[in-house]
Structure formats: structure tokens, C-alpha cells
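Human:
Class, as today's exercise, you are to examine the entry below, and be ready to discuss the fold:
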Amino acid sequence: MACETLQIPAASPGQHFQLTVCRFGTPGMEKKAYVQASTHADEVPAALTAMHLRRLLESAEREGRVRGEVVLVPAANPPGFAQALLGHHMGRYHLPTGRNFNRFWPDATQAVLAARKVFTDDPVANAARARSIMRTHLETLQPNAADEQLKLTLMQLAHDADIVLDLHTDDDAEMHLYVDPDHWPALTDLAGLLDAKVVMFARGSGGNAFEETVAAPFVALRETGVTCELPVTVTVELRGRLDVDDALAMRDGRALFDFLILRGIIDGEVQAAPEFSGIAAPFEATEPVRTPAGGICVFLKERGAYVEAGEVIAEIANPVTDTRTPVRTRAKGRLFTRCLHRLVHAGDVIAKVQGTMPLPGRCKGQLMTD
């Protein structure tokens, strides 16, 4: 293993952030996997899982079992890790600019499409050409703020990977995944290994989230008729932000490690992945449940509950008027996330319900909440 420290400059003189990158295996040999954790820096279970995965990768490398290349960024957001306001960690948004750390990543799609004439009918060669164009495009960018420099650095590390796993958590949630629809049902092994309860098919969801942006140039080529291998890009939501537990992190790290074995990047034997028994459906079938009123959110349903359309999952208590407003779902499905903050404002997303049928008004390009 080789670890390097990359410098991410801050906005003021005399400051900088350090990004640690761990490399396993040999670049250019077999396939490349890229794993990053805690892009939203307040989602710390992801970083703890990365620590356990790192130990497994170190052991595999000592034993000569890494056939391809694995790049692991165990704490992908140093600027976000440093942000605190009055004793509260603020890791989702870059405070100087207000930008979400997992939105609007540098996108090389237009540069790749502009060179469409260089592509042939060889999908492997086309993927290599696309990555070369992406690399050149990314080298031309000149970021300003620290969050822009961080995003460019991470995209340069990930753009040429065959497998990209971006480790996150939600508020109070069950294990769930975002995957490109073209990789389903091939990714049922990953979903089974992680015991995911929900898998959402996400493409063009709006906001240029990391895993979609890595895949975007390849998707765009395929949509123009160019045959091209599509990288496996997944956002892994490791339950909720308070699920900071070594036993869980060790189990999740092992599941990710076993997935890399199944994909041939690491030598080893794995028992057949457990069968996926959750809900797999388009992101258009995911309902972000918004509250019609502000007040104290009192949930009536636990995470993991199956609910009917129109069912009351929570009440918003108003201590001033001594009244309660019911919060009803539109979707029929599994209640798989709930908010942690219980003092809410009208229009806040307090939960997500995964159904199987697209919901009216859920349109491509307008699916991701901030």
C-alpha cells in the first residue's frame, strides 16, 4: 500500500487542507476500483466503514491478492470535516459558498461528445478514449474555492475507474443504494452483501451528484449510438448518521471487500451473495415526504414500515395552538428514511418512501433534493 497526501488550498493565506489517498495494487493492471467516504463530512459512519475496508485491503496487499488497482479516500472532505458553528459540525455544505459538497462536480461530458468522431465500434477502446479525453479536460480546469479544488481532485482520482463506490449516510435510514439502471440486476450481489432494503435507479437526477457525473460521459456516448463500456457507479447510503458502530462498519467494510472479490479486483473466495429481498425501482418512484406545516415532528411509523398511499406517518404538533397536522404519503411502499431534526418547517422533507410506480410530478432532472 502507498498513501499520499494531496494539498487542497484554503481561501485565505497560510491555510491548506490535506487529503489522504491510499493506493493498493498496480495501476493499469486489470480493473480499477475507486472508493471514497464522507463526501458529506457529517456522514461519519462512511469514514468508519472506510477504516475497516482499509485494513482488509492492506491485508490483501500483503498477501499479494490485489489483482487490479484500488484507490481509497477514507475521508474525502477535509474542508467539511473542519467546519463547525457554535459546537455543531456542518459538513454537508461548504460554508463560505453555501454549495452542497455532493452537487455540481466537474463534468467532462461535453468534451467527450465533442470528440465523438474518434470513437469506433470497440466498446473497450471507446471507454479508454473517453477516459483520456476526460483526463485532459479535467487538467484544463482552474478551480477557485476550496470546495471546487476538492471536487476536481476527487474527480481526477475517480474518472478512469471501472468501479466507483461513493459512501454516504442519510439522516435516520435503512441501508439503500443509488445505481444506474443499466447495472440492474447485475448489482443484486452488492445489494445482497450490504443487506440493502432499497435500490433506486438513478440517472440524470439533477444536481450532478458524484456517481452520476463520473458515468455521465459514458452514458451520453451510448445515447448517441456509440458502443461503450459503462463504469459501475454506486452511491452507498450506509444507514443513518447516528449509526456509528464498529460492528456495523466492520460488516459493511467486509461486504464491500467481498464485492471487489466478486468483481475480480481482489483474489479470494466468497460465498454466494445473500439474496436481495428489498425494493428496486426507479428514483421517480421515491417520494420525499414533505410536511404541510411547521412544528414538532412526531413520527407514528418506524423506519422499515410498509405504508399505504394516503397513510399518516407523522403528526406535526404545534405547541402554540395545541393542534396537530397529519403528514400523509402519496406513495405505497417502504418508509426507509426519516429526518433526525424534529423541529421542522413547512415544506421540509421529513421522510422518504420507496414505492414501485413513478409518482406524478417526479420528473427526470428534478429528482434530487439538496
The chain has a mean pLDDT of 96. The chain has two domains: 2-277, 283-354.
